[in-house]
Amino acid sequence: MPELSKILFLDIETAPLTATWSDMDPKLAHFWNEKVTLLRQRIPERYPEESTGESKFQEAGIFAEFGRIVCISVGYLYALDGTYHIREKSFAGEDEYSILMEFATLLNHSYNTSDCYLCGHNVKEFDLPFIARRMIIHNIPLPSILNVAGRKPWEVRFLDTMEMWKFGDYKHYTSLNLLCTVLNIPTSKDDMDGSQVASVYYIEKDLERIVTYCEKDVLATAQVYLRLIGESLLEVDEC
């Protein structure tokens, strides 16, 4: 089991590349239309027949080709007087390149050894692939811990609380909010949820609210991880 101080807990918040559908590059808009057509076939309950690229524009933010990162929040645990505490930091703003560069610098400097791990909820399917793809788009060299090409599964240093909760059941999906609820852990969804990030970012222009929400997700994930491995939760005043 990884040493707790060697785990970096993280979460990202994303939004479409542009504020409105009409602002999208026409070439990308064409491919987004094609994407929505495929999604109508694969997930008709979420993308009904009348769905178009324009009507589903807000969902472009969950795909790295059509979205951007507006916040990466991280947290690490440290021991003090026999108990663990969490320290958090966020990289956020309008310049995605700077966000990714600052995060890459952190990974290269502090999480570049074989005993370090990255942990998040659904992080293997969403957060880390999204970060890696956006880094490549910006021509940023991938930090070693993110560069998993050619590695064997046991060499990949990602910890996923959703995967841990599955216990081998590959069909089972559990949101962080639900998991916090059933485990009696304070939830991060008391102010907003991921579907609201784009409007809060582009319309309300309230980046601080997004940062607060993202940091709450990081804390909730750390608490869930501690519970799953049988460790004591952080004190309430750390939440």
Task: Provide an overview of this structure.
With 239 residues, the protein is an alpha/beta fold. 37% of the residues lie in helices and 17% in strands. The chain has seven helices and five strands, in the order E-H-E-E-H-E-H-E-H-H-H-H. It has helices at 26-42, 96-110, 123-137, 161-166, 176-182, 197-202, 207-228, and strands at 7-16, 67-80, 83-92, 117-120, 158-160. A five-stranded mixed beta sheet has the order 3-2-1-4-5. Strand 4 (117-120), helix 3 and strand 5 form a beta-alpha-beta unit. The radius of gyration is 18 Å and the shape is globular.
Brief write-up:
With 239 residues, this protein is of the alpha/beta class. The chain has helices spanning 26-42, 96-110, 123-137, 161-166, 176-182, 197-202, 207-228, and strands at residues 7-16, 67-80, 83-92, 117-120, 158-160.
Helix and strand topology:
Elements: E1 7-16, H1 26-42, E2 67-80, E3 83-92, H2 96-110, E4 117-120, H3 123-137, E5 158-160, H4 161-166, H5 176-182, H6 197-202, H7 207-228
Parallel strand pairs: 1-4, 4-5
Antiparallel strand pairs: 1-2, 2-3
Secondary-structure-based class equals: alpha/beta
The amount of beta strand, in percent, is 15-25%
Helix content: 25-40%
Q: What composes the largest sheet?
A: 5 strands, mixed
Order of helices and strands: EHEEHEHEHHHH
